[in-house]
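Troubleshooting: if your tokenizer reports a length mismatch, compare your output against this known-good record of 241 residues.
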Amino acid sequence: MRATILGDGPMGRALAGALETRHDTVEVLGRPASGGHPASALAGADIVFDASAGPAVRSNISAALAAGCSTLVVATTAWDREREAVDADLHNANAAGVWAPNFSLGTALFARLVDRAAALYGRIDAFDPFIVEWHRRAKRDRPSGTARDLAARLGTAELEVVSIRAGSPPGMHLVGFDAPGETVELRITARDRSAYAAGALAAADWLLREPRAPGLHPFDSVVDDLVAGPTHPTQIERTFA
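Known-good structure output:
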């Protein structure tokens, strides 16, 4: 594929490295000195990855659509308020995109474990749910998008969420259920951003494999295809090698 990455931060660099390993053609565009990216800078891309910052997402996608790109992957957090508008923009342009607060396949499956745990422990008043998440010092949003998603899955109004911003870890999320005599913990820890990049590439492959309905698709749609069975074993092995 010919890919353009908007954003040259840690995620953008991880995506570029993963694409280059697969021998895809990739161009990384950092943050413009002023204004947004011109559509001309995105012309010719088979897919555009947004790995920028929340406030820039809608203008970046508008530029990609103006350039004629109809497949996009949004690997950026803190743009929740723009999601409906972005979805409408994609529908209007007959374009499709995949978004997620976290593109790690492990995290997507972890969230499904949390769904099941919440259904079980939520039946017993003695267990109080809580979330602890730890990211690099420079990460601005707190709680993280992943932590907000996990909190929504727990489905309780009284929930303690602790956000740690220190050092340089790419991400750790712990979901716990505490009772007077015991504590149950589910934890996922990212060692680096390669898992996030692999998931974003899987989303791109999913979009390009066959026509998808216009609008934003959740990463769960991609995960469903991956866990359903090796319909495309060569492509799956290539993505997660």
